[in-house]
Amino acid sequence: QQPVQSPQAVILREGEDAVINCSSSKALYSVHWYRQKHGEAPVFLMILLKGGEQKGHEKISASFNEKKQQSSLYLTASQLSYSGTYFCGTAEIQGAQKLVFGQGTRLTINP
Amino acid sequence: SAVISQKPSRDICQRGTSLTIQCQVDSQVTMMFWYRQQPGQSLTLIATANQGSEATYESGFVIDKFPISRPNLTFSTLTVSNMSPEDSSIYLCSVEGFPNEQFFGPGTRLTVL
User: Three-class SS string for chain A?
Assistant: First the structure.
């Protein structure tokens, strides 16, 4: 079953923060976050494994609450380059690479 | 991460014809995946391609429509058979990385007239 992302779209000014949520009705082993720019392939951002860990990469970080089967992606002090559609992909089983993707969140950063 | 290439990058095809998409990886990988992304939509897994065995198809996708080959650990092909306009999509291959990461190729943009 497809995870649900929220919001569906968000528009920010450069420098503002954003949070994108991904929620599943099934028990998850891992959550994968990708960013896709128009006309390009999805680019891997990070993976979060069961255990409630949090990861960060520069000004982009994420958390995974395995009890709630929810993950959140945090974009701090957004840059123009952050624009794109963000997808979460979920896996139910350890080691399984079959990902089920959410419907996507379109992020627009304006100057 | 692995370097993944796909051919063709885009094509325009006539209804009823077939197109074979190639996916090449610069290193050996155990599992390769084929996804479809319809216009403005999310990614949907078509099948998992394992070397030396039949591909495993997801619900809604059948081998007759989307035959897959995986002759070695660096290469796979996906054929879209007897195409209709509804097959117009971006087709992406992906490979597993380490640990548990998955990387996508550049995609093949298919338009069926």
Answer: CCCEEECCEEEEECCCCEEEEEECCCCCCEEEEEEECCCCCCEEEEEEECCCCEEEECCEEEEEECCCCEEEEEECCCCHHHCEEEEEEEECCCCCCCCEECCCEEEEEEC
The structure tokens 């394992």 sit at B50
B1/A99 Cβ within 8 A:
no
Give B35-49 pLDDT, tens digit per residue: 999 999 999 999 999
- Across B61-80, average pLDDT: 96
Contacting residues of B for A30, CB less than 8 Å apart: 100
Closest-CA residue in chain B for A47?
B101
- For B4, the closest chain A residue by CA position comes to A41
Q: What is the mean pLDDT of residues B68-89?
A: 96
Band (pLDDT 50/70/90 cuts) for residue B30 is confident
